[in-house]
Write a structure and sequence with these properties.
The structure is a single chain. A 7-stranded mixed sheet has the order 1-2-3-4-5-7-6, sandwiched between helices. The protein is of the alpha+beta class. The longest helix has 16 residues. The chain is built from 6 helices and 7 strands, in the order βαααββαβαβαββ. Helices cover about 30% and strands about 25% of the residues.
């Protein structure tokens, strides 16, 4: 079984990270690239590497030297300081998780052949450690598409659902919003 190393992404990792992200939105979400939702995928450096309070993590297969450099990126996870926007999200949700003090977890994606090995859980743990070390985040928030196999159950195992749009009048976007406790 391959071994993996999780680390902060470098500029050399961006093509591999972008490939994982784009493959996921095409294969798992079935939406493909939608500019208003996925602009960070095209510019992960501007979204996650350059801003001081943001981060992008990657999981790479460890190469023969054990350094984890130059290996294939098999998973991603990102954090930024933008809370959920209204619209399209409910106003009360945007008020509860304001930009600046909310660590939004994003792009926690694992290639199918590397799933069920604990990578997503490890990546989320490191994102939460990053948020705590920053010192300016009061909450960790994310939204997930329950149509993606395994996504809703995974996030429910880590946090508390604060809004399930499927239960809202009209069903909203059908998205599930989750708060994950900071350590």
């Amino acid at each position: 079984m391959p071994e993996y190393r999780i680390r902060t992404a470098t500029p050399d990792d961006l093509d591999g990270a972008r490939a994982v992200m784009l493959d996921t939105v095409y294969r798992d979400f079935g939406t493909g690239y939608v500019p208003r939702w996925h602009s960070d995928i095209i510019d992960p450096r501007g979204a996650y590497l350059d801003p001081v309070r943001h981060t992008l993590l990657v999981a790479v297969e460890v190469d023969r030297s054990g350094e984890g450099r130059g290996g294939t990126v098999v998973a991603t996870a990102a954090l930024d300081s933008r809370g959920p926007a209204h619209p399209p999200n409910p106003r009360w949700l945007a008020d509860r998780y304001p930009s600046g003090s909310t660590a939004q977890l994003r792009r926690v994606y694992v290639r199918p052949e590397s799933r069920r090995r604990g990578l997503a859980r490890r990546l989320v743990g490191e994102l939460l450690d990053f948020a705590v070390a920053d010192g300016g985040y009061d909450a960790a928030y994310l939204h997930t598409d329950p149509a993606v196999p395994g996504a809703e159950a995974f996030w429910r195992s880590l946090g508390k659902v604060v809004c399930d749009e499927r239960a809202e009048p009209g069903g909203g976007q059908g998205i599930v919003h989750v708060e994950v406790p900071l350590p």
